[in-house]
Amino acid sequence: MKSVDAHLADVLHDVRALSSLDLQLLDAHGCILAEDVVAPWDLPQFDNSSMDGYAVLAADLAGASEQAPVALPVLGDIPAGRPAAIAVQPGTAMRVMTGAPMPAGADAVVPVEWTDGGVATVQVTRAPEPGGFVRRTGDDVRAGQTVLATGARLGPAQVGLLAAVGRDRVVVRPKPRLVVLSTGSELVEPGLPLGPGQISESNSYMLAAAAREAGAVAYRVGIVPDDPRRLLDAIEDQLIRADLVVTTGGVSAGAFDVVKEVLGRLGTVAFDRVAMQPGMPQGFGTVGPDGTPIFTLPGNPVSAFVSFEVFVRPVVRRMLGVEPLHRPTVRALLLEGLRSPEGKRQFARGWLSVENGRYVVRPAGAQGSHLVNDLAHANCLVVVPEEVTEVPAGGTVTVMVLERRLS
Ligand code: AMP
Ligand code: MG
Asked: Separation of 120 CA from ligand 1 center, angstroms?
């Protein structure tokens, strides 16, 4: 049997980050930046008012109060987007809107709430500080500053920042396009009635969701029956849009294990028995004219999930060009004893939490690779090394953290 580490090294061996692309800004959402973005101008670009109010000289209003309001003539209005043509003279004011450029001569804004809102003359009942309610040029970003560096992930706020510095396109590493394909003649689309011996197809939904969380664009292909011709056609159809193909099912030792049969003849896909539980039957190789990588994962849902976490997710991350490739691990106190098969690395589902300031983990009771309910109520995988066959309650284990939700 092949070790987990050897298989991981094999699947990562030829994978490189995808070549960068110049994308329209919104299409770059969720991608990794592949250039340093330098601000061509200051943000804000000009001194402007942070409030609707009146541009004034603060010194004119020293001592203004409810009891002793100060009256100033209002020289005119400054809407956002229209700089004033005249300056504010001592002893005068101009009405100014939020975001409007500060007029020359003024050094503060009185919010309209501190005034009677007058149009020709304004009564001010409270004095602003010099500089009060003025957003200064460059207090956010300086021209020439690198606002986002290569490797930054473009979430909503980062997309907003790029637009604010005037970018409508940006060079990014694209998200890998991952095609998920489920094989099995027993499978039925969820929502459709089940006949005898049939089951609702779940792997492709689970893996498409996992692929999205890993940063890929996931395409879920419908069910492919255990028929060599149909499988070949389905794979060939998908190659056009795939950076990575993931199949599930059909790789064990059954009589109708069609994935193994078809891809075994097709070229570079190697089928291995990997020393792990769950997830022993693994296939990996390339298909098609572009040498598209393909994973053939086992069909049992928990095996497929664990295989995705251990082997596929790191490949997606490598294609994205991001580190770290692997899930974070922590050491935790095991609350219930665990048995593990000799010579295999076990990935047991569990619930990680913090008690009295330390990590503790409770394994899910049974560890069958068909137990999707336990999987859905786990937040981590307890990793039991190959040579260990039993960890007693109170022992310390390594835990792969799948979710930050730890309560
Ligand atoms: P296989 O690897 O094709 O022998 O499948 C192993 C087990 O996983 C069988 O019980 C299948 O019915 C089940 N299985 C295979 N593919 C799926 C799927 N896409 N969704 C849910 N269960 C599946
Ligand atoms: Mg099958």
From this structure: 79
Structure tokens at 330: 């922590």
What percentage of the chain reaches a pLDDT higher than 90?
91
Q: Which helix (H) or strand (E) holds 332?
A: strand 329-334
Model confidence pLDDT, tens digit, residues 17-41: 999 999 999 999 989 999 999 999 9
Does residue 205 register a pLDDT over 90?
Answer: yes
Is the pLDDT at 404 greater than 80? The verdict is no
Cis peptide before 278 (omega within 30 of 0): yes
Please, which residues have CB less than 5 A from ligand 2, an ion?
Answer: 184, 249-250, 299
Look at residue 215 and tell me if it is in a domain. Answer: yes
Query: Are 164 and 60 members of one domain?
Result: no
Nearest Cα to 235, choosing from 201, 258, 257? 258
Structure tokens at 10: 């094999």
More confident residue, 6 or 267: 6
Mean pLDDT, residues 207-229 taken together? 95
Ligand nearest to the CA of 256: 2
| Angle between helices 228-239 and 258-266 in degrees, nearest 10 | 60
Same domain, 152 and 224: no
> For the chain, what percent of residues have pLDDT higher than 70?
99
Residue nearest to atom 3 of ligand 1 (CA): 249
Q: Is 302 left (phi over 0), alpha (psi -120 to 50) or beta?
A: alpha
Distance CA 164, CA 166 (A): 5
CATH number of the domain at 254, please: 3.40.980.10
Angle at the Cα of 296 from the Cα atoms of 291 and 302, rounded to 5 degrees: 145
Q: Which atom of ligand 1 is nearest to the CA of 223?
A: 19
Q: Which amino acid residue places its CA nearest to atom 8 of ligand 1? A: 300
Residue 215, pLDDT score? 92
- Count of structural domains within the chain: 4
Q: Give residues (CB < 6 A) around ligand 1.
A: 182, 184, 186-187, 199, 201-204, 248-252, 254, 298-301
pLDDT interval class at 407 (50, 70, 90): low
Pocket of ligand 1, candidates 203, 207, 260: which has the most ligand atoms within 8 Å of its Cβ, to mutate?
203
* Residue 166 belongs to domain spanning: 23-38+147-172
Q: Token match 């064990």: residue?
A: 252
